[in-house]
Amino acid sequence: MSQIDRASIRKQFQRHDRDTGSSEVQIAVLTKEIEALTQHLKTFKKDKSSRYGLIRKVNTRRSLLDYLKRENEESYKNLIKELGLRR
Predict the structure, then answer these.
(1) I need a labelling partner for 21 at 20 to 30 A (CA). Which of 1, 8, 28, 69 fits?
(2) Which domains does the chain have, with CATH numbers?
(3) What predicted TM-score, i.e. pTM, was given to this entire model?
(4) Cα(81)–Cα(58) distance, rounded to whole angstroms?
């Protein structure tokens, strides 16, 4: 699978210059990983371990999105719009 450029994602979604672990950054990185895994699974349909990893990433992202919506709804709405998620 191709490598994801986490540094550029982090720069785009970080709250301040040393931010690496905010909810927004984690959700954006997970979204890119989910997109990469989805493309991988379109090619390799029988790769069950990657499918399990995809399901775990989707569930983690869902939990983080729920947390962000609870804590900061404006940031949640902006993030959903930027990433193009259907929530």
Answers:
(1) 1
(2) 6-83 (1.10.287.10)
(3) 0.90
(4) 18
